[in-house]
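Entry 14. Ran structure prediction on the chain below.
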Amino acid sequence: MSDWRPSASVAQLQQRAQLLGVARAFFAERSVFEVQTPVLAEHTVTEPDVQSIEVPGFGYLQTSPEYQIKRLLAAGAPSCYQLGPAFRFGEQGRLHNPEFTMLEWYRLDFDHLQLMHEVAELVDRLLGAKPYQHVSHIDLVGPAAGRPRDELDLAFAEACERLSPGRFFITDYPADQAALARLNADGATAARFELVVDGVELANGYWELMDPAEHRERFARDNDSRRQRDLPEVASDNAFLEALEAGLPNCAGVAVGFDRLVMLALGADGLDQVLTFRGQ
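Output, structure tokens:
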């Protein structure tokens, strides 16, 4: 017999609702407007470390609103954010659920350093003000050259767990982990950051790559990696690439796991205590 009751208590869900209101007020104060993009679309991301949920005949449940929001920015939208559901296959555990709430926003004419400052302001608003430390990726896990990606990912996850208590921005990722961030002037590191709060990976942000040709090259490398890992290849999103050709404005963007943020705010042990109904 299944348990029909909510995962979280009604009191916890009321606190969650208050935090949603605080987050929306934060962006309203800054004239960053809220958008709603499709959670079901024809295409999905090529990134090998992110597995999408396919809906046969319809496409994919979106792993984030990134491609859709960037299409809006290319069409002339100002700084904007989305606060809503995202989906990833195979993610289940204390800090993971196949369906989760993502807060993602993009700021025109920001770089990643300015965006880190705004991320800290939001986190302080929701969790209370505390100091932040900055640590480079190489200082966290050591040199990346010659090390298998799986080994690096495990070392990073273990290192993040040790960053507790405290708030840490991880910066200067190796160029081959740039994802869709532009590279720094040194050509060896990416204009990318992650925020770890009390050992929990909370946010991932970029100074966004604008070059369409470089996007195509990175998508091709992603699919090379997918083949090597025996993962299905993913077709490039032509609408997204055409938007880049039309011109993505200079911007920085970040995605925040909102459920994890609520978990930290409530002092909860896991996502069970902040979700209405846990995915089966």
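The first strand starts at residue 33 and ends at 34. Will compare against last week's run tomorrow.
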